[in-house]
Amino acid sequence: MANTEQTIAGLHKREHLTFIAISLFYLFETAQLAYYNVLAPSYLADNIYSQVKIGALSAAYFYGDMIGLFPVGYALDRFPLRASLIFALIGTTVGSFLLFMSDGFVMQWVARLFVVFAAAHFHL
Predict the structure, then answer these.
(1) Dihedrals phi, psi of 5, to nearest 5 degrees
(2) How many domains does the chain have?
(3) What residues make up the domain containing 59?
(4) Which residue of 7, 67, 86, 111 could cross-link 99, Cys pair, CB 3.0 to 4.6 Å?
């Protein structure tokens, strides 16, 4: 008699839920990271920031990714995937909220860096 916990593919229901949660997070992360791409043209059109500052905000994405790779690699080796996923979800949400609420360049740069640092879990 077959085990009722397993599906046809031989995976447990928990593994399917983890896969769905990670897939939804990828969608959520993509929306958050694309949020800046919506802001940049309006910043330039309204003369809020110069092209140099827009480039610096864009570079924060790569800085956050590079800075986050080592700690994230360590965390993924030491902590369960769910804990890492919760950290990434909370971190990107807080960073996106800070980016949304801030009106100063430095705070927007830090918020963008933090979003990508938290989301670096899924760039590996």
Answers:
(1) -80, -15
(2) 1
(3) 28-40+50-122
(4) 111
